[in-house]
Design a protein that fits this description.
There is one protein chain. With 94 residues, the chain is of the alpha+beta class. 12% of the residues lie in helices and 27% in strands. The strands form two sheets. The chain has a three-stranded antiparallel β-sheet, with no helix packed on it. Strands 2-5 form a two-stranded antiparallel sheet.
Length: 94
Amino acid sequence: RRITEKQALRPGTFATTAQDAINVHTGREAIARYALENKISANKRFSIAPKEGTKLKRGEVQPAYGEPGGGVEVLFVDGTCDFSVKLPPDILPE
C-alpha cells in the first residue's frame, strides 16, 4: 500500500538506509531496530533508488511500542519518482 503501481513510494513513507539495513537479518530484528508497532514479522526488504534531490528527513528511531529502536529512519516527504522501488523485494526470515 506504500508502493504505487509505477513502483514509487507514496508521500510520507518511512524506510532506512542501505548502511543501516545491513544490521537487520530477520523480520524480528527489523521490528526491534525500527520500533515497529505491528508485531507481525516485517519480512520484505525493498531496494529504493530515489533521484538526487528527493526531499527526505533522516533521524534515529526512538524506543516505542516496547521495542528498543536505534536504527536509522528516512522519511520520504513527497514520496519518490516512478520506478525507484525495485521489485520483487528480498524476503527476510522471521
